[in-house]
Amino acid sequence: MCVRRGGGIGWWGRLPVRVANVRWLSGYRHPRYADAAVVDRLREACVVPRPAAEAVGEVGEAIRVWPVVFHALWSSRLHVDLDQVLGEHSLITAGAGAA
After folding, report:
1. Phi and psi dihedrals of 8, rounded to 5?
2. Average pLDDT per run of 10 along the chain, which is 99 residues long?
3. C-alpha angle 19/66/92, rounded to 5°?
4. Would the CA dihedral through 40, 44, 50, 54 be positive or negative?
5. Closest CA to 98 of 76, 80, 86
6. pTM of the predicted structure, to 2 decimals
7. Looking at the DSSP assignment, which residues form a beta bridge with residue 51?
8. What interhelical angle do 62-74 and 10-26 show, nearest 10?
9. Do 34 and 78 contact (CB within 8 A), yes or no?
10. Which CA distances in Å does 83 have to 1, 35, 64, 75?
11. What are the φ/ψ torsions at residue 51 (nearest 5 degrees)?
12. Which one, of 89, 47, 92, lies nearest residue 73 by Cα?
C-alpha cells in the first residue's frame, strides 16, 4: 500500500521492532529494578558504546545486572537504538542515544 501511494516501506518496516523493544523494556519499568550503584557502574562502563553483554559481564552477575540494564534503558539512564532488535549484541551507551 505504501509503495502504491508513492512512499517507501522503510519506516513501517522498523516500527514493529521499535514497538517490540519498547514493550519488552516496559516490563522493567517498576522501581524494584532500579539499582543506583549498578547503574553508575554501567554508565561508567558504557561511556563509549559497547555490546550489552560485555558491559553486563564487566559490572557483575548477569542474573542481577540484566534487569537493571533494561530498567536503565526504559528510564533513559542508558541508551540503545530501539530500531534494532535488542539482544546481548546491542550497543548501549551512557551518552545521548537513539532511544
Report:
1. -100, 180
2. 57 78 96 96 96 97 97 97 95 73
3. 65
4. negative
5. 80
6. 0.82
7. 91
8. 120
9. no
10. 22, 26, 26, 17
11. -60, 140
12. 92
